[in-house]
Amino acid sequence: MKQEEKERQGDIKFDIVWTTLAEYLDYLVERGISCNIASFVGATTVRIHEIGHEDRPPTPDELGRMKMLVRQAMEEGALGVGSSLIYAPAFYAKTDELIELCKVASEYGGMYISHMRNESNQLLTALDELLTIAREANIPAEIYHFKIKGEKNWHILDAAIASIERAQSQGLRITADMYTYPASATGLNAAMPPWVQEGGHKEWVRRLKDPEIRKRVAEEMRTPTNEWSNGFIDAGPDKMLLVGFKSDSLKHLTGKYLIEVAEMRGKSPAETAMDLVIEDDSRVGTIYFVMSEENIKKKVALPWVSFDSDEASLAPEGAFLKSNPHPRAYGIFARLLGKYVRDAGIISLKEAIRRLTSFPAENLSIKKRGWLKPGYFADVVVFDPETIQDHATFEEPHQYSTGVRDVFVNGVQVLKDGEHTGGKPGRVVHGPGWIGWKTN
């Protein structure tokens, strides 16, 4: 499996020398990193370990081993269990399976965080599933990058907020996080039905080469459904921006919309999407313009919503420049403080700082961080609220934000006057199941 994963790597190549969560986190620290790191354990990670990419429930023995893997990860410091139910093979997991895994994390004081099963026309049903898991497993739950996709679905946000706040009033600890952009970023897999992706990437590509299967996939991509979250319909090919190709021969298409490439090739957008997956032997990084600016402002105003980048940590140099990330990789937090706090006044600067620091730290049960207090780790960002500004765009995403002057991690300065010092004091931040958590 490690070799197969390495073969599918894109512009950044690396050896996979770890097996467990603890080994991975320790490996990063040993290499040297400037930031702290923490992690959930993936519900899909343990599922793949025991079941592979099959669309079926686990046997009792398989589920037992999956629970043991969650237990191991919690004791190694995982923050809880995470799921990404919009994607295959995560999509194949049923609610009862997720409840059982979350019961283990709950024993250790962990939480459940989920990219819910549907973020468009069936969002309220997906939200009910998250609330059921939280209730049945007795675990706090967070909606990972809370959003409503597709213009015809934008009105659902108010009902979703009401449902969450009703659950909170009933004693459930439900929170959410978000990024402050009107577009999501994933791959062309989010535009195709989960059944065609069963068995993993190689099987997906093999099926897309079959003429009869292609007809069925194309038809389902164009047909509204309640069975899966259809990114092809939520955005439309004119709002699907292609940004990440593995193959050098296709990189000239970076920055073009799917409809443009389809017209260049004289094929339908659905056929073109399938062809690109086959040719690039990847899911093809894609940005979907599916969200409402009005809804973004509503979510920013909610006191139980924190903020995430949902992106890798990048630099505007070397291999990173071969593909275009979502601009949130460079701009998310500066954009919040500049556009939505200073310029729009949606929330106060004090409230924004709370939701960037103490609120997520407490929410994730991270000890001695998130506050400027004696005895706490000195993780400090010094910025100018009058000048902080994001510059990354969808067209030119590799641009640093400005206005951040100094950054200290664990008391060591890693950014001085806007320049990296070379300091790499980053360490693992453990969750509440870790043996040293209470005494750390």
CA-to-CA gap between the ends? 35 Å
Number of helices: 16
CATH class of the largest domain: Alpha Beta
Which sequence of strands runs across the widest sheet?
A: 1-2-3-4-5-10
Question: In this structure, how is the largest beta sheet organized?
Answer: 6 strands, parallel
CATH-assigned homologous superfamily of the largest domain? Metal-dependent hydrolases
User: What is the share of helical residues?
Assistant: 25-40%
> Spans of 5+ residues with little confidence (pLDDT < 50)?
none
Q: Could you say which structural class the secondary elements and strand pairing correspond to? A: alpha/beta
- Gyration radius (Cα, Å) is 21 Å
Q: How does the overall form come out from the CA principal axes?
A: globular
Looking at the structure, the CATH topology of the largest domain is TIM Barrel
In total, how many domains does the architecture comprise? 2
- The ordered string of helix (H) and strand (E) elements is HHEHHEHEHEHEEHHHEEHHEHEHHHEEEE
Mean pLDDT: 96
The appropriate CATH architecture of the largest domain is: Alpha-Beta Barrel
